[in-house]
Design goal:
The structure holds two protein chains of two kinds. By secondary structure, chain A is α/β, with parallel strands linked by helices. The longest helix of chain B has about 35 residues. Classes of the chains: A alpha/beta, B alpha+beta.
């Protein structure tokens, strides 16, 4: 209805899915005013959830002294707890509002054994999964896939899959790096909100508000999409997977790609020099008066 | 000259055990799915089963463990456990997906029973009776009408019970006296009483065995699906030595009107259903007992190696303790192998009666011995209720009694062996 002479089409940022249209009216007489009509669809979330397969949290890891690696033979592996929280958060976003979430894609890198872990994530409610197949990185060599390499792989994957939101665990319980999310946001040049304890999405504007747990307390950030969020423990409590969902997860799509497909070099830059268990706690002592306590602390050089 | 030689050869030949196809070793390792690697162990399961085990082990830690002691003291299963079991899909393991189930294998159902028993054998038996007895009966022998009417609610909300035994009909199950009087329109009226019914107090759907034609003896026994509101009364809940939280009820059926559509299987062939169900149920109980043994073992051995020191070292380091621990561990492994062997044969469609009887017999014996040792290994502390190991000792005793006493198992095994050797 608007004549092309008087209307200007402005395309929004790469992540919004519809163009916005500005229209300038120039009435013939005295008053000139500008009416800007924005026709925009609320952003739909295309979520990527990277996950990691780790030694089950309940198991005490042991070191294989001869090979200088963590013993992984016969050990139970599971989905990293922070990653589980990330998948749960993505599913909750979908349940919070119809049509908000377009898709939830899982991605993980390593050997074929990761299929089981991806399936656990699919059973929680994700739609599809991608395995970045690196046969050399089997369970015992997982430390050779470093956070920077993972961040590069994820950057390539996220760009390929047109995602506008990445929700991932803040760290894996095997190496406790707490780096990958931050590096990924840097490589993508996206905003980041790490250690999230609460996530709210304003559907109209596409602004995400995240409460972060930091040393001093809670910090609240808000940022527009696209965004990388890393999850902290108190963000949510993952649901129990129903057996029916575990069986249905078998039918969900899982694709395999390689680091070469993504054009990423994953050669490690760090070398593990040695691995050792933390020193065992030696017994303390008991004192029966405050003076004796002060004496002991002074003797130990603590005060 | 050859004749005496041939005669003695013939005599030797008769003495050699004859191998029937039932003993073919290949069948022992057959499953409906190929094992991931060339046959490594009968205890290697496919991912479905392993994922289910993780779900149950988390369920145990979060939902069951905090409630075990209270449920045992109050002799009552917390309704939250029953509803959580339904919500997680643990009450419809083998039920096909179109009826709301998980559509998984028999081995998966058995693994779930085993895993639940590691935490609470009462919860395990509730799940076992519902899954391997009630769900299986309805699934295998139910008409389309019965399946459509009952499987969905059995999958999502209604607990089932298996009502066969009576005061005068335990091992001699077919001496049951509950009658099903046939009416002119084809419907039935059930009258009588049942005893020793697991889940009896909480169940809403009952598989009831009644005799419609007593003059034909056991050939009149018919199975029915009966809903509680039709008149099933819980007369009494037994106070028991063990599995106290599981309800074991005396039921009475007072002129309970049952429509003819609710006949399960073929009229007059209820005895076949009972026999087949009980054969399968044995594997379920073997799983419960194996899980119980493992649970008691884990508790006590962890204590012996990590918590208790005497004479300057952990009690688990004394050779006497180590030998006992090793012996018991070997027996639990043996029981588990018997269990999963029977489960796999059954799943593959082979003859599994002897293997199932052996599994239940041995598992119940191992459970009793393990639990007894576990209390001893924990010493005085093991004798107190706070330490959560004496309960396994009390719970283990029922293993040798229900779903076929040990004497019945021995008799079943002996008769099958006799057939092989004659």
């Amino acid at each position: 209805m608007w004549s092309s002479k008087n209307s200007v089409h402005v395309f929004g940022s790469p992540t919004s899915s519809r163009p916005t249209t500005c229209q300038l009216f120039r009435p013939p007489l005295q008053q000139q005013y500008v009416v800007i009509t924005i026709l925009a669809m609320p952003p739909r979330l295309n979520i990527v959830v990277p996950i990691k397969r780790v030694i089950d949290f309940a198991i005490k890891p042991r070191i294989n002294q001869t090979k200088n690696v963590i013993e992984t033979n016969g050990v139970k592996f599971s989905l990293n707890p922070f990653c589980e929280i990330a998948v749960e958060e993505a599913v909750r976003l979908r349940e919070s509002s119809k049509d908000l979430v377009e898709s939830i894609t899982l991605v993980s890198a390593g050997s074929a054994k990761i299929q089981d872990t991806l399936r656990a994530g699919l059973a929680l409610g994700a739609d599809k999964a991608t395995l970045i197949d690196i046969p050399a990185i089997d369970d015992s060599r997982s430390l050779e896939l470093e956070p920077l390499a993972v961040a590069k792989l994820l950057k390539a994957f996220v760009e390929k899959s047109n995602a506008n939101l990445v929700i991932m665990g803040k760290q894996a319980i095997d190496d406790d790096s707490n780096q990958t999310g931050q590096m990924l946001a840097g490589l993508l040049n996206w905003s980041q909100a790490t250690n999230a304890s609460k996530v709210t999405v304003d559907e109209a504007s596409g602004v995400v508000t995240v409460a972060r747990e930091i040393d001093g307390g809670t910090e609240t950030l808000s940022a527009p999409l696209p965004l990388v969020i890393t999850t902290d423990l108190r963000l949510n409590t993952p649901r129990y997977t129903k057996l029916q969902d575990i069986m249905k997860a078998k039918k969900k799509k899982t694709e395999k790609i390689t680091p070469e497909d993504l054009g990423v070099d994953i050669t490690p830059r760090l070398e593990i020099v040695s691995l050792s268990e933390p020193a065992k706690r030696t017994g303390g002592g008991k004192v029966d008066s405050v003076d004796a306590l002060i004496g002991k602390l002074k003797g130990a050089g603590a005060i | 000259m050859m004749a005496p030689l041939l005669r003695s050869l013939a005599r030797v030949g008769r003495l050699l055990p004859r191998y029937s196809t039932a003993n073919c070793p290949i069948r022992l390792l057959s499953t409906t799915k190929p094992l991931r690697s060339p046959i490594s162990s009968i205890l290697e399961f496919d991912e479905d089963v392993e994922m289910f085990r993780s779900v149950v082990s988390r369920f145990n830690a979060d939902v069951v463990a905090p409630r075990v002691e209270k449920m045992d003291e109050e002799e009552h299963i917390d309704p939250i456990i029953i509803s959580s079991l339904f919500e997680t899909g643990l009450m419809a393991v083998e039920t096909p997906e179109e009826y709301g189930g998980a559509g998984a294998s028999f081995t998966a159902a058995v693994a779930i029973v085993e895993e639940l028993a590691k935490c609470d054998p009462s919860v395990s038996v509730l799940n076992d009776v519902h899954n391997t007895l009630v769900n299986t009966c309805v699934r295998k022998w139910g008409s389309d009408y019965i399946k459509e009417t009952y499987l969905p609610s059995l999958s999502t909300s209604k607990l089932g019970a298996f009502a066969l035994s009576e005061p005068s009909a335990g091992s001699d199950a077919f001496a049951l006296r509950t009658r099903a009087r046939k009416l002119s329109d084809g419907d039935f009226v059930i009258e009588g009483g049942k005893m020793w019914i697991t889940n009896g107090a909480e169940a809403e759907i009952f598989v009831v065995f009644a005799n419609a034609e007593p003059e034909k003896g056991y050939r009149g026994i018919t199975a029915f699906v009966v809903e509680k509101p039709w008149g099933v009364n819980v007369v009494k809940k037994e106070k028991k030595l063990g599995i106290r939280a599981s309800s074991t009820a005396v039921l009475s059926f007072d002129e309970v009107h049952v429509p003819k559509e609710n006949v399960l299987g073929v009229y007059g062939q209820g005895y076949k259903i009972a026999i087949e169900c009980l054969n399968e149920g044995r594997i379920g109980i073997a799983a419960q007992m194996t899980g119980l043994a493992q649970g008691a073992f884990d508790r006590a051995v962890s204590y012996a190696f990590n918590d208790r020191q005497q004479f300057g070292k952990y009690i688990g380091e004394f050779q006497g303790m180590q030998f006992q621990i090793a012996q018991v561990a070997s027996e639990i492994e043996a029981a588990r192998l018997l269990l999963y062997n029977a489960a796999r044969i059954k799943e593959a469609g082979g003859q599994f009666v002897k293997e199932a009887a052996m599994a239940k017999l041995i598992a119940s014996q191992v459970a009793e011995k393990t639990a007894s040792r576990a209390v001893e290994w924990m010493g005085g502390v093991g004798f107190t209720r706070d330490e959560k190991v004496e309960k396994f000792y009390r719970d283990a005793k029922i293993g040798a009694i229900y779903e076929g006493t040990s004497n019945i198992q021995l008799q079943t095994i002996a008769k099958l062996i006799q057939k092989e050797y004659t």
